Request: fold
Amino acid sequence: MKMKTKILSTMLALFLFAAVSQAQDYKSAIGLRLGYPLSATYKTFISDQAALELVAGFRTFSGYSWFNVGGYYEVHKEIPSVAGLKWYYGAGANIYFWSYDSGFNGGSTTSIGLSGVLGLDYKFADAPLNISVDWIPTFFLNGYGNGFAGGYGALAARYTIN
Reply:
């Protein structure tokens, strides 16, 4: 747990350091969310401050694996002191398809989760690149992982489409 905190803190520091250059906004972006799980991500703004983000991820670990798809509604707010840097919050839902094999028995299940979102988003001025760092706590309504999961942080890198 301490190693994850150090890695996320380092990524956040690098992210903020990179934010000193001139930046501009974008309409849509597609890329990877480098976290837990590794995910494909697509974000599009539906107004000046509101965006929809769609994710699809896969993870395998010690006898179990899952595939998830999710969508989030995010509200972006400017950070006036740094052009192109925004903070955002929002909520959404995920569906998880679990598979496991404990050696004695195996199986699969499906879970539905409700999630919150909190993060920072930055668009580089001279490159079609957007990066973000966020935290997504999730409450599982059923199935494997039933109940609150502390959430997972990730660094996303996306190609912007204006």
Summary: The CA atoms of residues 18 and 124 lie 9 Å apart. Residues 12-24 have pLDDT under 50 and may be disordered.
